[in-house]
From TrEMBL:
The keyword Membrane does not apply. Keywords: Hydrolase. CDD domains: PaaI_thioesterase (cd03443). It comes from the Bacteria. GO terms for molecular function: 1,4-dihydroxy-2-naphthoyl-CoA thioesterase activity. This is Uncharacterized domain 1-containing protein. NCBIfam families: unchar_dom_1. GO terms for cellular component: cytosol. The lineage of its organism: Bacteria, Pseudomonadati, Bacteroidota, Cytophagia, Cytophagales. Residues 46-124 form the Thioesterase domain.
Amino acid sequence: MDSTLEKLQEWSKNTMVEHLGIELTSYKDGVLIAKMPVDKRTHQPMGLLHGGASVALAETLGSIGAALTVDLSQKACVGLEINANHIRSVREGWVYGEAKALHQGRSTQVWEIRITSEAGDLVCLSRMTLAIIDKK
């Protein structure tokens, strides 16, 4: 694992990211990828992947992706809005999230996060807008 991924895994300790079993697997050419288990931690009562778990994966990827593009000693990235279209259900295995920046401005960023099943089917399509603010 490269040093960026190691640092990101360290950030995730003792957070919801760790609780849900989200694993950051790749950061290359501005694309951040992670996987999340579909199990008792991420199921809704009917045994399907909970839509909120998909949104948690999407927000994790968008937030971390944005943070990787700024000087965190000077700036913070905070979510303004997130939406998600739940396309397909999943009962077990893993889902994979891939985040790409659509816009990287001085004060805002917009990220698209695609979540797919192990078979490559689109499970959820999400878009997140973040504000880039000065740390005080």
